[in-house]
Amino acid sequence: MSEQLYNPDYLAETQRLLEELKYSTYTPFLSISGRMVEVGCGTGDDAINIAKATAGNGLEVFGLDASEVMIQEANSRQSKANDKGIPEDQMTNVRFMIGNASHLPFEDGALSGLRAERLVQHLPNPEEVFAEFYRTLVAGSPLVVVETDWNSISFYNGDPRVTQRLRNYLTERNVKNGNAAATLIHDLQAAGFSDVAVRLWPLASRSLEQCVQLLRFDVVLTAMQDAGELTADEAQTLMNALRVADDRGQFICSINLIVVSAKR
Predict the structure, then answer these.
(1) What are the chain's domains?
(2) What pTM was estimated for this model as a whole?
(3) Which of the residues 81, 146, 253, 260 has an alpha carbon 20 to 30 A from that of 203?
């Protein structure tokens, strides 16, 4: 996914819209101690939130991301949280580092928990990453993985044939592993995880502006034109239909997220 699509502003808006989902995925980590890691932590909001919620529990939270820009932003947000008067003991249990999900900088069985949100879709080698998750987690510890089911995106206005091509592009070309949500249960079981449970989290928006902010499909339509997957007229016709529907109060877009929890 390009920097234009995946940047700190995008992640901040997503954090706001998915707040209820996110907090529900923190639960398995609220009663553990030791060390946990948020892999693919982005701007660090989830790691910071978990650190706040577990202050005093003996849990050290690590946020790891491959992007130096994201880690710089995460460190900045941690500093701002301190400046906002959050008690110091609530922010001393979180730190951020640059790292690779395929080679986690932790010893075997060093972690008491691991969380990854919308990470696996970007991985060309998910089986290697799940093996790393399994290696670094201690037996019985919780794992939570959240993924976007790009194949579930639906619009109820405009040409459905163009929407299908958009859906195909999002799943097959926009990210490296667009079918991650569909294979997540199998992949975790194949890696050796047990007690695998799944929840479907449907997300719907009646606002075109909100949908564009969250899914950035306007940028994707441009990328499809550049790739020869869509003509300019087809893209413009779809956007016009969505704008008209939005003006009339008839716009709706939906997409599913999958939350899979498991035990090492």
Answers:
(1) 8-263 (3.40.50.150)
(2) 0.88
(3) 81
